[in-house]
């Protein structure tokens, strides 16, 4: 009886709550009175929200007597209003990057919105993306949202299993500059040696920054070395952290798993992924100060994709995603000192531990000790990664100028371990786990910038100047002796020493290196008229180890009419080889057609490379151009087209491997007791020609809304020239052969198309997304082409606001359970039935998310 009374009472309370709801309506316009289509209107502190229709109108149901509404739209400053009944009218001002507000890459003007930038910029709202999609980390989120961005998880790739390499427009990971709140983010200490993406490159680990801490991501798809410094050949990714001026808590828990059903056997589930995070923001003072803190934990389990059909048997018993435990804490804050000055502090710490599968050593392998592993063994390569950053700065206004003085320190430390392994030269007395050494990269940047806008010069002139001093440190440290040493004393018996799966770094590999960089830039943007903008940037940089360089950028934008805008840029670029590329040295085990081979990767400028005639590394130089148009064809429909050309000269790549039977350098390799050797070299000139297309449409359907987006990247990278020198002169096909060239070209498929439908009605939402990845060609160990055919993945998410503060989302990524083309595992790079290409190789993923906002 009491139970029935409780149920009735609950129903009455619920009915009363629903009965007290009120319908709010209004209109959102810009400063000129034009409707703002697709603006987001959210009841503050809740998940209750909607979007404006083609006339800028909205309706929203609320159960609060006088709710506060937060109205936002890309290119406009956010605005809060109190809804007290009657028609709600909101006029949005264009967003600027003035003191204390947001940064938009591609322009240093304090009064430039992203909508009229002369360079193409993608703005990705992470709050929307994380709520409506199944991906949890930043790399995977961008992989399926931004067509010009490519990243997938590697397996069988040593360190790259733990740090996902990422690229823009098909170039290398180290040719994209990453900023956080407009400040340079440090790179990872890792050099990618295996896998299909980022081979021979360093890059920035985007996954150290939790998605829960990010408000939005800005992707500048244009050469910007003259604006932001070297590394910006392909473009710039700017991560804008969350800020809040009033107390607000957002928390979410996410869980998902893969359905491993690529064969006709029972369904199995693996790769369980658990993510929990909390974000807390609070205002400080009365002048716009805030503190925003994010805690994030992600646990990802192994996937197993080794047991697939293969005509010549398996190369590995364990093959799939690594197991990863990732914990982060991030802070973003600003503290006003006066109306004209503030202090800002942001940064964070990330701790990551991973287990990745190495190649199988079968029972009869001469690298196995049957007394320890009678059935053979599968080594596990472990990672222990510490990444931290801290930025402290002061912004101030004086004499009409905006000044920004900051210091930025970042560090990435990567330590290898090996377990479930052995050192065969120790026989049955060998340990089974090893400390294999590692490396660390640190940077410290001191910068001072000044910006001023002159509104009386024609239609507006913006000037910006700045200087920057950067110091970088690189350290490679050895592992324990048993991880690399060969204890065999019998010259008549060949036994391989070191830890199986990943030989440790040796004392001869260890090094400490550093360098300094000084940069100075000037930037000007002139609005000749309301229709015509011209811009120019000039940057001087001097590296202590590479000398000086002067780069420039020219840009223009012209509004033909109210509906069509033309834009174009031309720029030069420069990238010095990373300290890791210059100083990395290692002897590792590679598997060629399933057979282990010891490979020496010799440090540049070492006695070995000098003897073999490998020249010293020098800087890469680039020229890039972008021509595009933006158009709003009627209410709610917009088009963006951007064609680009990027030429890179003296690109740093990882060469092909030379065997110890080579007629020229073979005797030297035999003397070094290695089966093969490869090197870093400025071996290639590349040329990229491509097109970015974005079509967006917003349609009001009664009280519902349908937002549709078609975004595509078409990219064609060609290798124009291969350079050799010294004792290897004239051997271009062997120095940087077709196989290694194929890995460079596979940094991105030739095209990638994203079609998304986002539907909302009341408390219900649905997102349907199709992504087409074009074909990718690699070359197997026999020299035959491996043609990975085009694939289309389908994502579906259904969401429902249970209350104003609680939202549930469920769905599936890769709903069609699509896999890449399969090949003989003994002929692939990583020993699986496919290499890490296109959309990944884990199949269908189911997920559920519960998010609360207070």
Automatic annotation (TrEMBL):
Residues 349-815 form the TonB-dependent receptor-like beta-barrel domain. Transmembrane segments: none annotated. The keyword Transport applies. It holds the Pfam family Plug. Residues 114-236 form the TonB-dependent receptor plug domain. CDD domains: ligand_gated_channel (cd01347). PROSITE patterns: TONB_DEPENDENT_REC_3. It is found in: Cell outer membrane. Residues 1-19 form the signal peptide. Keywords: Cell outer membrane, Membrane, Receptor, Signal, TonB box, Transmembrane, Transmembrane beta strand, Transport. It is a multi-pass membrane protein. InterPro entries: Beta-barrel_TonB, Beta-barrel_TonB_sf, CarboxyPept-like_regulatory, Plug_dom, Plug_dom_sf, TonB-dep_rcpt-like. Belongs to the TonB-dependent receptor family. This is TonB-dependent receptor.
């Amino acid at each position: 009886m009491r139970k029935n009374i409780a149920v009735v009472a609950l129903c009455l309370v619920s009915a009363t709550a629903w009965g007290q709801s009120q319908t709010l309506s209004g209109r959102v316009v810009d400063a000129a009175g034009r409707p703002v289509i697709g603006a987001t209107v959210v009841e503050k502190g809740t998940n209750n929200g909607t979007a404006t229709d083609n006339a800028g109108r909205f309706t929203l149901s609320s159960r609060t007597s006088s709710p506060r509404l937060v109205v936002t739209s890309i290119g406009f400053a956010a605005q809060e209003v109190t809804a007290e009944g009657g028609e709600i009218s909101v006029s949005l001002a264009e967003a600027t990057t003035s003191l204390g507000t947001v940064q938009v890459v591609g322009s240093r003007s304090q009064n430039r919105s992203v909508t009229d930038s002369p360079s193409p910029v993608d703005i990705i709202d992470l709050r929307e993306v994380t709520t409506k999609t199944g991906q949890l980390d930043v790399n995977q989120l961008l992989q399926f949202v931004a067509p010009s961005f490519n990243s997938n998880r590697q397996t069988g790739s040593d360190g790259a299993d733990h740090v996902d390499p990422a690229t823009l427009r098909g170039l290398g990971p180290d040719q994209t500059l990453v900023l956080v709140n407009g400040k340079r983010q440090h790179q990872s200490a890792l050099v990618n040696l295996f896998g299909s993406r980022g081979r021979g490159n360093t890059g920035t680990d985007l996954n150290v920054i939790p998605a829960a801490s990010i408000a939005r991501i800005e992707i500048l798809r244009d050469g910007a070395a003259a604006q932001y410094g070297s590394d910006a050949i392909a473009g710039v990714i700017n991560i804008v952290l969350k800020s809040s001026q009033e107390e607000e808590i957002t928390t979410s828990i996410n869980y998902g798993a893969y359905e491993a059903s690529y064969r006709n056997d029972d369904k199995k589930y693996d790769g369980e992924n658990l993510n929990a995070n909390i974000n807390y923001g609070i205002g400080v003072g009365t002048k716009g100060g805030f503190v925003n803190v994010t805690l994030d934990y992600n646990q990802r389990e192994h996937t197993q994709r080794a047991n697939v059909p293969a005509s010549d048997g398996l190369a590995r018993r364990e093959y799939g995603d690594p197991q990863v435990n990732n914990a982060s804490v991030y802070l973003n804050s600003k503290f006003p000192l006066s109306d004209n000055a503030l202090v800002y502090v942001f940064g964070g710490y990330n701790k990551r531990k991973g287990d990745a599968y190495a190649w199988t050593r079968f029972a009869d392998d001469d690298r196995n000790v049957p007394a320890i592993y009678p059935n053979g063994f599968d080594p596990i390569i472990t990672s222990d990664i510490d990444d931290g950053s801290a930025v402290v700065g002061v912004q101030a206004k004086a004499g009409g100028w905006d000044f920004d003085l900051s210091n930025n320190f970042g560090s990435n430390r990567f330590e290898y371990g090996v377990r479930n392994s052995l050192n065969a030269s120790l026989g049955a007395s060998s340990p089974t786990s090893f400390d294999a050494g590692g490396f660390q990269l640190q940077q410290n940047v001191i910068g001072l910038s000044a910006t001023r806008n002159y509104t009386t010069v024609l239609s507006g002139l913006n000037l910006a100047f700045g200087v920057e001093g950067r110091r970088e440190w690189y350290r490679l440290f050895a592992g324990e002796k048993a991880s690399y040493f060969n204890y065999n004393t019998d010259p008549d018996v060949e036994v391989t020493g070191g830890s199986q799966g990943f030989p440790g770094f040796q004392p001869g590999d260890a090094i400490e290196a550093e360098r300094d960089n000084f940069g100075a830039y000037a930037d000007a943007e002139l609005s000749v008229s309301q229709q015509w903008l011209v811009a120019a940037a000039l940057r001087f940089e001097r590296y202590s180890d590479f000398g000086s360089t002067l780069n420039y950028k020219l840009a223009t934008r012209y509004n033909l009419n109210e509906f069509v805008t033309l834009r174009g840029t031309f720029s030069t670029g420069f990238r010095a080889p990373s300290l890791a590329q210059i100083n990395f040295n290692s002897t590792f085990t590679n598997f060629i057609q399933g057979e282990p081979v010891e490979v020496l990767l010799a440090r540049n400028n070492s006695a070995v490379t000098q003897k073999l005639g490998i020249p010293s590394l020098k800087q890469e130089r680039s020229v890039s151009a972008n021509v595009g148009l933006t158009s709003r064809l009627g209410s709610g429909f917009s088009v963006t087209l951007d064609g680009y050309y990027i030429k890179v000269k003296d690109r740093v790549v990882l060469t092909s491997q030379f065997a110890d039977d080579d007629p020229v350098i073979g005797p030297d390799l035999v003397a070094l007791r290695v089966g093969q050797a490869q090197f870093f070299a400025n071996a290639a000139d590349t040329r990229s020609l491509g097109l970015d297309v974005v079509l967006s449409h917003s349609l009001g359907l009664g009280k519902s809304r349908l937002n549709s987006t078609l975004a595509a990247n078409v990219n064609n990278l060609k290798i124009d020239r291969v350079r050799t020198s010294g004792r290897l002169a004239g051997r271009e096909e062997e120095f940087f052969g077709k196989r290694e060239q194929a890995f460079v070209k596979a940094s991105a498929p030739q095209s990638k198309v994203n079609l998304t439908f986002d539907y909302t009605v009341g408390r219900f939402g649905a997102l349907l997304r199709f992504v087409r990845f074009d074909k990718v060609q690699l070359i197997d160990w026999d020299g035959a082409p491996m043609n990975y055919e085009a694939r289309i993945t389908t994502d579906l998410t259904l969401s429902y606001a249970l209350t104003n503060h609680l939202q549930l989302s469920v769905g599936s990524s890769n709903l069609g359970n699509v896999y890449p083309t399969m090949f003989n595992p003994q002929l692939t790079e990583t020993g699986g039935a496919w290499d890490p290409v296109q959309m990944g190789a884990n199949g269908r993923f189911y997920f559920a998310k519960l998010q609360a906002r207070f």
